[in-house]
Amino acid sequence: MPWITKRIIDLPTSLFIRILHGGKTNMEKKENSQYLPLNQLGEEDYFLFKGLEPGTIILRLLEPFTKEVCSWIGENSISAFVSREERFHLLSILGEDIVKLKRKTYTTRQEKAAAKFNKEKDLVMECNEV
């Protein structure tokens, strides 16, 4: 990305992985989000983002391979702009176990599909009663 010269942050692998995983949005329900709250970073990691205004940044991983990811940093959180599939791919290449992430994705999709099916079924039954 030769045209971008500012707001490029070189990250250690461990922090890159944490940002890809996202953070906990609701500790009681153990819900995950693509946004990693900055207050969940350690002091050393937080220092990398200190003083940056909210907006687009480039996160650059240098080891074990070079990868740049467009990201958003807000006042309180950071998020990588990658698709779910790319997120899974990057995490698996970096040695992370993504089975739980994939399972949660499919479970959520199945729940939504079941809810939609039940709603349609209820509508059909209501129409038949009339």
From TrEMBL:
Pfam families: PUA_NSUN2 (PF25378). InterPro entries: PUA_NSUN2. Residues 7-94 form the RNA cytosine-C(5)-methyltransferase NSUN2-like PUA domain. This is Cyclic nucleotide-binding domain-containing protein. It comes from Meloidogyne hapla (Root-knot nematode worm).
